[in-house]
Amino acid sequence: MKLHISFKISAVVLVLFAITVGMLVDVPRLDILNESIRNLFYHVTSWFAMVFLFIASFVYSIRYLNSGNEQHDLLAKIFVQVGMVFGAAGLVTGMLWAKYTWGAYWVPDPKLNGAAIALLAYLAYMILRNSLTDSLTRAKISAVYNIFAFVMMVIFVFILPRMTDSLHPGNGGNPAFSGYDLDNTMRFVFYPATIGWILLGLWISELRFRVDSLSQKMNDDLDIKSDRLDSIPRLDEE
Fold first, then answer.
1. Could you give the number of structural domains in the chain?
2. Cβ–Cβ under 8 Å, residues 102 and 130
3. Rounded Cα distance, 180 and 152, in Å
């Protein structure tokens, strides 16, 4: 996995653009939301990046089951790890937004509870990986569970909230932001911010992949050297 330098430059430019312009641009003056609507540039875009990375992990788990390529398993793990970082950022920014909009950091909302369940499912994925010692068994079981976790995420984050009463825009019969208050000025920041966070997530994933690949190679080299040393006859055995 190697990103072209243009993608990395784009990630830096777009993220800086979202952070600075997102705080300075004029936003719609709406009841209750007021200035907190700027969180759209950070909360929603973090979730978009998370979902994108989880989709990538889902794809690489399927590819591993088809090919048995260890690098596919490694990429699936890394995309989950980085996706969880963006998921945690989405939860924190969402809780701050909920405090100013709904009066509490956490409310019994299907979308919030579903997001928490989805992240717990992926946390269980990491715990499962760490509990298995055999690399082949770990990769196969983790790939199967990762597919299950992705399906759970889709159900709890995208399907159930639309079928029940939810405070979130676009869920439970509520109109989405784009339907009544996401004007062109906000779109001018929102879309570049979404692309920027996704590219940043891919860049972080690439760095993790390079570090983990190097660490795995070093461990393999140490195992080979250890096997060679064990094969040398000892003087006390002659």
1. 1
2. no
3. 30
Which amino acid would we find at residue 161?
P
**Domain span holding position 186:** 5-212
Please indicate, yes or no, if residue 235 is contained in any of the structural domains.
no
Instruction: Choose among 131, 132, 121, 147: nearest CA to 65.
Output: 147
Q: Distances from the Cα of 166 to the Cαs of 32, 50, 109, 169, in angstroms?
A: 17, 21, 6, 8
Residue 158 lies in a domain: yes
Strand, coil or helix: 108: coil
Task: Give me 73's structure tokens.
Answer: 């398993």
Domain presence at residue 175: yes
Task: Tell me the pTM.
Answer: 0.86
Please spell the DSSP secondary structure of 21-56, one letter per residue: HHHHS-----TTTGGGGGGGGTHHHHHHHHHHHHHH
Per-residue model confidence as pLDDT tens digits over 168-227: 765 545 555 554 456 778 888 999 999 999 999 999 999 999 998 888 777 666 655 555
Count other C-beta atoms under 10 Å from residue 37's C-beta: 19
- Please report whether residue 95 resides in a domain: yes
Instruction: Look up residue 50 and give its two tokens.
Output: 């998370």
